[in-house]
Protein: Synaptotagmin-like protein 2
Amino acid sequence: ESDTASEISFQFNRHKKTPSTGSHSSDMASVSSVSGSVLSVYSGDFGSVDAQGTVEFALDYDEKNREFQVHVSQCKDLAVVDEKKGRSDPYVKTYLLPDKARMGKRKTSVKKRTVNPIYNEVLRYKIEKMVLLIQKLNLSVWHNDPLGRNSFLGEIEIDLASWDWSNRNLNWYPLKPRSLSAVNGVDHRGVMSLSIKYVPPGSLGKWPKNPPSGEVHIWVKDVKDLLQLRPSGVDSFVKCYVLPDTSKKSYQKTRVIKRDTNPVFNHTIVYDGFHTEDLKDACVELTVWDHEKLTNHFLGGIRLGLGTGLSYGISVDWMDSTQEEVAFWQEMMLAANEWIEGLLPLRSL
Structure:
């Protein structure tokens, strides 16, 4: 049923176990060092201020240098974050959507103690024009906090496909509240077809116990409608972790499928070392990446778990499964030794 099979032993306790042939022993990371394997590209939005004010900027594309330029001039009448001191320390940040991670963020300097900051700075992206035209520009204004608890002050989003590129003038735009898609990470990144199965300890034989510990089988079938980040297409592969273990021993991946936005992987991964109670605290993270020589770019992912926000009593940000992902995981837990099929949308993590 699959052209590639991977198996890895996954230990949730601290006891040593002799690995079986063809598998690798992997101890659970200590709960003190639990961490997610993919971080959000958005700064933490801890502010409770309402978006207000305007921002002045201009857009241009330098054909000679193949460079997209955002000329950030100034802002007016921004919200006051620290009401006691009557101050905001604003800066402007930009992303190219839908893939914020690929092109990265650009940001201006921070202007302190003002709601009318003047920047006169140019934010630059090296990008082909034809690729740029399938992007959206997200420009947002933030208050800079020394402790990193930055506050959102407003944003504007521009569809670059319909932009008038003859307009190189500075223009004023009203800042809007955070869009629902940005808050929830709801943007279309493709759909993954997969099946999962849980095999409880000893469920396949009485003596000797077969298997000696529980197993989670993950069959990654295919992905449809991936983001096409360049004209030649996408060279994609899937990474897999069982969180909270983010060690190299826990890491598994498929082969790379080249120049295809609808790749077929047909790859099965088996994690053993599971006890049934571990299913409440573990989370299978599957992420899809675009492979390039220098670096890989995040395309989207899913997290299969109960989405409780807790793992072994510790609060973790990666235990954030959507309702669809939770239902898929619960169905697997209730139907031992049965393949559960699913079609789940990829999302930002």
In short: Residues 1-47, 180-186 have pLDDT under 50 and may be disordered. The helical segments are 100-103, 129-132, 180-184, 323-334. The chain has two domains: 39-182, 190-346.
